[in-house]
Amino acid sequence: MGFCRFCGREIPEGGSCSCPDALNELKNTESDISNSSENSGKVNLSKESADTATVSLEKENTAAQAASSISQPQFQPSQSGNTSNNGLTQNNEPDPLKQLVTLIAVALGFILILVFLGSHSGYKNTAKDYFKARYSKHGGKDYYSTILPDDAIDALKDEDEWKEKVEDYNDDVENRMKDWDKKPKFKKISKTKKMKNSELRAAEDYFCGIAELCGADVDDDDIKAKKGYAVTIKYKNTEGDNDKTTIYVVKLKGEGWKVMADLGSGFFDLDF
Any idea of the CA torsion for 140, 143, 147, 150, to the nearest 10 degrees? Predict the structure, then answer.
C-alpha cells in the first residue's frame, strides 16, 4: 500500500494514481522508455552495418592485392642493369661490335699460341719422326717425306719412282734388322742449338742439290731456309747401349721442317 506523491491519495500495491499530475508523469516516462529503445536499436544497427562494411572493404582490398600480384610483373633491382625513370630495371643489351672485337682478339691470341708452339716444338717432332722412320721396316714413306724437299718428292712421283724407292727402303731396313740385337729406341732430345745464317745458306744449297738429283727443275732461289736447329738425340742403339746422334732440322719456306740426313739407305751414291 502506497500514497501518491502529488495528491496524497492511497494507491493499491502494483497500481498507480489517476490524478492529472501522476498520469502526466507516467506518460513522460513511457515516452522516454520508447525513445531509449529506438535509439538503442539504431546504435546496434549502425554498429552491425559498420562491421559488415569493414569486412567487405577488407575482402575487396585483399582481392585487389591478389589481382595486382597476378596481373602485374614483379621487378627486382639488378646490380648490373640500368634503372629508368619509372624505377623498373632494364637489362643491358650486349654490344655486337664489342663482341666482335673480343672474338677477334681471342682468335688472334689462339693463332699466336699455335704459331709459337709450332715454331718451338715442330722441329723436335720432326726429329723424332725421322729417327723412328729410320729404324722401321715400314718407315720408308715417312723417312723420305722428312728428308726430301717437296720439289724432289713431286719429281719422283712424276717419274713413277716414289713408290719403288719407298719399298726399296723398307726392304733394306728389314734386311738390316736381322743383324740387330735390339731395335734402336728413341729416348729424348737432350740438346738443341740454333743454326747460324751461314749454315742456313748451306742448307739451302743442300736441299736444292737433293731436288736436282731427283730430277726436279729448281733454281737457287726456289728453296729458302727460314730457320734451323742442330738437334742432339739420345737413344738406345742396336746393341741396347746408350748412344746419341746430332742431326740438322731446317724449316723450308712453304714446306715445313725437313731433316738434313746422310741418306744411309743408299738412295744416293753421295757422301754428305
Answer: 60
CA atoms within 13 A on the CB side of 224: 5
The DSSP symbol for 222 reads: S
CA distances from 81 to 75, 78, 91, 114, 231 (A): 12, 5, 5, 38, 58
The three-class DSSP label of residue 175 is helix
Instruction: Copy the grid coordinates of residue 178.
Output: 736381322
- Give backbone dihedrals phi and psi of 249, rounded to 5 degrees, phi first: -115, 120
**pLDDT tens-digit map of 39-82:** 544 444 344 444 554 545 455 555 445 444 444 444 344 444 45
Contact 28, 20 (CB under 8 A): no
Sequence-ordered alpha helix ranges (H) in the chain: 20-71, 96-134, 140-147, 150-158, 162-176, 197-213
- C-alpha cell at position 194: 740454333
Residue type, 213: L
What global pTM score does this model have? 0.54
Averaged pLDDT of the chain = 75
Q: Residues near 242 by Cβ (< 8 Å), separated by ≥ 6? A: 187, 234, 235, 236
CB atoms < 10 A from the CB of 210, how many?
A: 25
Length of the chain: 272
Q: What is the DSSP-derived secondary structure letter of residue 1?
A: -
Mean predicted confidence (pLDDT) in 20-49: 58
Radius of gyration of the chain (CA): 56
